[in-house]
Amino acid sequence: MQSKNKLNELINCIIEGIKEKKGEDIVKIDLMHLDQTVTDYFIICHAQSSRQVDAIADHVEKSLRKNMQEHVFHKEGAEQAEWILLDYTDVVVHVFKKDVRTLYNLEDLWGDGKLTRISE
64 FRET partner, CA 20 to 30 A, in 3, 4, 19, 79? Predict the structure, then answer.
């Protein structure tokens, strides 16, 4: 578990990386107060195309490596680029294609978490 300051810095770097590649409808879900969760935070966004999904995920990964020396623990979904998951242990990033995000609706699935919408 990272310090609160380091965790906030990580989250801010992720959000800035998403914004730089025009990710849409960014939300942060705080799961820390819930029992038996796999992470402390989800960061969720979407894009209009698979190409943009891939670009956002790639940019976030490179930004964290460059600016914070953080390496992704686990990555899934890059082959189809409809839903790419980047696992940084305490924070999991979900980059969706818009229709796939609507289908899985993680915000409702994790509705007990504290949801914060990030302004563009």
Answer: 79
**DSSP secondary structure string for all residues of 52-65:** HHHHHHHHHHHHHH
Domain ranges of the chain: 4-117
User: Which residues partner with 93 through β-bridges?
Assistant: 43, 86
Residue 22 to residue 15: CA distance in whole angstroms: 11
CATH 3.40.50.970 matches 4-117: no
Residue type, 94: H
Q: Which tokens in the block code for residue 99?
A: 């229709």
**Contact predicate 54/81, CB 8 Å:** yes
**Cα angle 6-12-16, degrees, rounded to a multiple of 5:** 145
At residue 2, φ and ψ (nearest 5 deg) are -85, 160
